[in-house]
Design a protein that fits this description.
The chain contains 14 helices and three strands. It is mainly alpha-helical and 373 residues long. It folds into two domains: 183 residues, no CATH class; 147 residues, no CATH class. The chain is flat and about 85 Å long. InterPro entries: Teicoplanin_resist-assoc, VanZ-like.
């Protein structure tokens, strides 16, 4: 038994390590959508989103992983034919041992959370949720039967038609539990109209990640386009230099051009667009927030954007080059916000506008002249 488990050791460790990390990354689009819909995000919604993704990734991962570390050795020594006898689990319940019964119960329990979430959070009707659970089980079993659709040389897990029945039963039971639970614990959705002017740290980070995604896509497209145009237009002198019209350059120009593209992309998405829209970048527009928490004009607004651009620009550069100092700067901002409840650039004072003069109208009354006839 130990020797059999050791065949899966490396891939199991990899799956176990990447599981929460991948789930966290995949949760970000859901958080962005919640901000877009409700303008705010509660801790309950955030935990719910992460748990849902964690379950979904775990469902897909641990029904396929771990894979044997040595495919040739495993496929040579093991053969798992598909189990196509429907309702074969009934004799297992009647005459099988405790292990068979526990396996059936685990197949049911594995899909209980799916049914619960499809009712409680997705608000799906039962005629959509239950077939969806069945479809997920069919996909999982078919993936096992085909060795991850041909990526693996053999079926390292057994295809069992009864698993689809027990999984679907689990999804249906979970849907029923979600229905009963919601009757006693109704959901409360809080939506805040308008633009959030005092966003929290997570709201800021979700918006920032959206902006960085735009920056990164622009950087990739434009930098590769620049490099392609350079090699199309420049003539190789075969001595490490290139002739570009009257100019004599080397390959360092491609690196400088890529850096220039990154700088321009950052200035567009993190400086120009927010400054033109009162602190609302593309990410901030989607999540309905502004990072200009005060009314600023003149030199105070310039100073605000200078400080923010330096810090966010450093964070962007560190993220682009994959430097470990990225996490140090990010952790500093997190700790700073926890204690100060604001970001460093928010300390730039707002502009105090003079109050407009009050107009007092003086109404002069003229004496009424009476005439006697």
């Amino acid at each position: 038994m130990i020797a059999y488990v050791e065949l899966f050791s490396s891939s199991f460790k990899l799956a176990l390590t990447l599981w929460p990390i991948i789930s966290l990354v995949l949760t970000l689009p859901i958080l962005a959508f919640i901000y877009h819909r409700n303008h705010v995000l509660s801790w309950g919604s955030m935990v719910t989103a992460y748990v849902s993704v964690l379950y979904g990734v775990g469902l897909l991962t641990f029904t396929q992983y771990p894979m044997p570390d040595d495919p040739t050795l495993y496929c040579f020594t093991h053969h798992k034919p598909p189990q196509l006898n429907i309702f074969a689990f009934i004799p297992q319940i009647l005459y099988g041992g405790m292990n068979d019964i526990l396996q059936l119960l685990l197949n049911v329990m594995f899909f209980l959370p799916m049914g619960f979430m499809l009712y409680r959070w997705a608000k799906w009707r039962w005629w959509i949720a239950i077939p969806f659970a069945f479809g997920c089980s069919v996909f999982i079993e078919t993936t096992q039967l085909t060795g991850v659709w041909g990526l693996y040389p053999c079926a390292y897990r057994q295809f069992d038609v009864d698993d689809m029945l027990t999984n679907t039963l689990g999804g249906a039971l979970g849907y029923g539990i979600g229905t009963i639970y919601t009757k006693f614990v109704p959901q409360r959705i809080t939506a805040t109209p308008g633009t959030v002017t005092q966003p929290g740290f997570i709201h800021r980070m979700v918006s920032l990640i959206i902006d960085y995604l735009f920056c990164f896509i622009t950087y990739l497209v434009c930098s590769y386009g620049f490099i392609w145009a350079f090699f199309e237009c420049a003539r190789n002198n075969l001595d490490g230099t290139y002739s570009l019209g009257p100019l004599l350059v080397d390959l360092s120009i491609t690196r400088k051009g890529a850096i220039g593209v990154a700088i321009v992309a950052f200035l567009i998405f993190e400086v120009w667009i927010p400054a033109a829209h009162r602190g609302r970048s593309l990410g901030a527009m989607y999540t309905h927030m502004t990072f200009e928490t005060k009314e600023r004009h003149g030199w105070t607004r310039v100073l605000f954007y200078v400080i923010r651009s330096i810090i966010m620009g450093a964070l962007f550069v560190l993220a682009m080059i994959g430097n470990h100092w990225f996490w140090t700067v990010w952790l500093f901002l997190l700790v700073f916000y926890i204690f100060a409840r604001k970001m460093p650039w928010d300390y730039v004072p707002g502009t105090v506008l003079p109050e407009p003069p009050t107009l007092h109208e003086t109404v002069e009354t003229s004496p009424v002249e009476s005439t006697e006839e």
